[in-house]
Amino acid sequence: MEIVHVYSKLRSEFGRQCLFSDRPAELLLDLPPDPSLTLSFIQKSPRDQAVQACWETSEHQVNTERFETTSCGINHMEGGWPKDINPAEMEQTIRVRKKVEKDESFINSVLQLGSVMEHCIRQNNAVDIYQECFEDEEVVEEIQEPPSAKTVNIFRDPNEIKRTVTSLSWQPDGGRKLAVAYSCLEFQKSSKDISLDSYIWDIENPNRPEMMLKPTSPLVCLDYNPKDSHTLVGGSYNGQIAFWDTRKGNQPVEFSSLEHSHRDPVYKIIWLQSKTGTDAFSASTDGQVLWWDVRKLAEPTECLVLDPSREGNLDQALGATSLEFEPTMPTKFMVGTEQGLVISCNRKAKTPAEKIVCTYDSHHGPIYALQRNPFFPKNFLTVGDWTARIWSEDIKESSIMCTKYQMSYLTDACWSPVRPSVFFTVKMDGVLDVWDILFKQSDPTLSLKVCDNSLYSLSVQDNGRLVACGSQLGEATLLEICSGLSNLQKNEKSLLAAMFERESKREKILEARQREVRLKERSRSEQSREEEAGREEGEEDPKQLIVRAESDFYSLVEAEVKRREKKDEVMKEKDICEEKDVKDEEQKGTSE
Amino acid sequence: MAEVEETLKRIQGQKGVQGIIVANSEGIPIKSTLDNSSTVQYAGLIHQLVMKARSTIRDIDPQNDLTFMRVRSKKNEIMIAPDKDFFLIVIQNPSD
C-alpha cells in the first residue's frame, strides 16, 4: 500500500499566501512487524567487517642516471701527527710515541681494552662461531622455482652513430672479457662518419670498453682463440681477415690481402684445432670457405667453393652465412647457406668434389646459426626463417625436431655449454628465448624481452650462466640465467639421448614410409602406362578395398554380438545357480 | 707502564694472534707488533672504519655507542676495541 497524500489546489488560487495551521499528530500508517517475514531471512552472526587503518603507500621505482666511476689507487701516507712533528723523522716520531705511552689515560685505556679484547680472543679460540655446521648434510632438493634471468649489465656503443652488434665472442678460460664486433649490415646504409671500431669489454665495467680494435673495415665477426686468450681473429665487411694480439695494441697484427680474401662480408670465422694453434677458417656470402694460417695472412691455405653440384663452379656457389666446427670432430664441419641449405663437409677429402659430403634442406631463408650439441655432436641446431630446428646427422630429409613458427624472424641461436637440453634463441622483436626441450617442446621455457629493437647476435659463456646478446642499436646486454637452467639436472643426458633416439627413429620410419609410398606410386604409374586395362584395375582397387573392409566390419560386429549373447546366457545361468544356492542355504538355516 | 706491556704480551701469547696495534684517536699507531708499513696501513684504514661505524651507531640512537667490532674475513679476523682516545686492534687467525 502506498502512503499518499493528495494535495489539490485550484489554479486560480496559486500564489496565494500559505496559511499553515497546527494540528495534532496524526497516525498515518502503522506497520507492525510481521514475524512470518523472518523466515525469509537468515541471521548472520558473526559478521565480518574489514577495516583498514593504515596510510596509503604506493610503490615507485627510480633509476638514477648512470654514475661514471673509475677506480684508482690511493697513496697511504702517515697522518695525524701534530704539526711540528715531521713524520719522516724517526727520532721525533719515537719521542711522540714515548710521550703518549707515559700518559695516564693511555695506560688505563689499554688495560681496559686489553681485558675486553682478551675475552673475545678466548671466545674465538674456544668455539669457531662461524663454522659451517650443516656442510655435510645432503643438499636439499631445490624447490623448482620458475625460470628467470636478470640483466647484469648493458654495454652501449659509445659512438654517436649506433651500429649493429653482429658478433660476440667470450674470452676463453674464465671469460672476464667479451669481444663485440660492430658493423652496419644494411646494404649501403653505412655513412662515412660511422666508426670502424670494435671493442673488447670487461664485464665488470660497462662504462668504457677495455680495449678498442681498429680494423680497416668494420668487423662482422670475431673469435677469440680458444687456446690463447690474447689473440683474436676477425672477419670484416670488405672480406678481409684480420688477426689481433691484445698485448700488441689496437691495430691488427696482420690482415689478409684484398686480392685473396673474400669478396663479400665474412659472416663467420672460427679457429680450428691444429698442432700450431694458428689455423682458422672463414665463410662468406661469396660462396667460398677459406682456410687461413694466421702467421701468414697474405694468402689462404685452402679454399672450398660451396657448389652443391660439386663442380667447384663459383657462379653456382651458394653464399655461406654461418659455419660450424666442433673441436671433438675435427675432420668434419658444416656450412649454413643463404639459400637455406646446410652443407656438411669433410676436411680431409682429397678432391674438392669429395669435400662436400651431403646437404640438408632446412629453412626457407638464410641460416643464421648452426651449432652441434656439445654433448651429442650427432645432433645440431639450425636457425633461419621463423623456426629453430634440431637435426640428426643421419637423417637428411627433415629435422627431427622443430619449434613452431614464431612471431618474428630468428636471428641467432646457440646451445648451452652445461645443459644438453637447453638452447637460446634471439629474435627480431628483441626477445631472447630459452628453450628446454626436456621440459617443454612447444614453447620456450623462458622468454625475455631484452630490448625494443631487434637482437642480432648471441653468445653464451662457457659456464652457462652468462648470456650476452647484441642488438641493432649497438647494445650488448649481459644476462644471468637462473641456476635451474644452468646446472646439469639428474639423468639429463640419458633422457635427452633417449629423446633424440626416439625422434630420429620416428623420422627414419617416416622416411622409409615415404620411400615405400613413392615406390608404390612409381610402380603403379608404370603399370598403368603398360596396360590400359591396368587403369581400371587401379580404380577398382579402392572399390574392392572398400567392399572388403565392409565385409570385415560386419563379420566382426556379428562375432561380437554373438559373443555378448553367449555371455548374457552364461550370466543368467550363473544367477539362477546363485539363487538356488541362496535358497538352499536359507532352507538349511531355517531347518537348523 | 709495565702493566701495559704485560697486558699486550698476554694478548700476543694467545693462540692465533698475528698482531696487535694500539692507535690514538687520530690514527697514529702508538704501539705495534707488526712492521711499520702494515701498522700504518692498518691504523689508517681501521681508524676510518671505526669512525664510520661509531657515527652510524650514534646516528641511529644517540644514547648508544660502539663498544666492539669484529671484522671477519676469509683469512683472519680483525677485532677492534674502541675507546674515547685510543683503540686497540688485534688480528687473529681463528683456530680451525
If you had to describe this structure to a student in words, what would you say it looks like?
The complex is a heterodimer of chains A (592) and B (96). Chain A is an alpha+beta fold and 592 residues long. Chain A has six helices and 28 strands. In chain A, strands 1-28-27-26 form a four-stranded antiparallel sheet. Chain A has a four-stranded antiparallel sheet with strand order 2-3-4-5, with no helix packed on it. In chain A, strands 6-7-8-9 form a four-stranded antiparallel sheet, with no helix packed on it. In chain A, a hairpin with a 6-residue loop joins strand 6 and strand 7. In chain A, helix 5 packs across helix 6. The model of chain A is unreliable at 533-538 (pLDDT under 50). Chain B has 96 residues and is of the alpha+beta class. Chain B has a single domain (15-95), classed as Beta-Lactamase. A five-stranded antiparallel sheet of chain B has the order 2-1-5-4-3. In chain B, strand 3 and strand 4 form a beta hairpin. The termini of chain B are far apart. Chain A binds chain B through residues 76, 78-81, 96-97, 100-102, 105-107, 109-118, 120-122, 124-125, 128, 130-131, and chain B through 1, 3-4, 7-8, 10-11, 14-17, 22, 24, 26-28, 30-31, 40-41, 44-45, 67-68, 70, 72, 77, 79, 81, 83-88, 90, 92, 94-96.
Summarize the structure.
The complex is a heterodimer of chains A (592) and B (96). With 592 residues, chain A is α+β, with helices and mostly antiparallel strands.
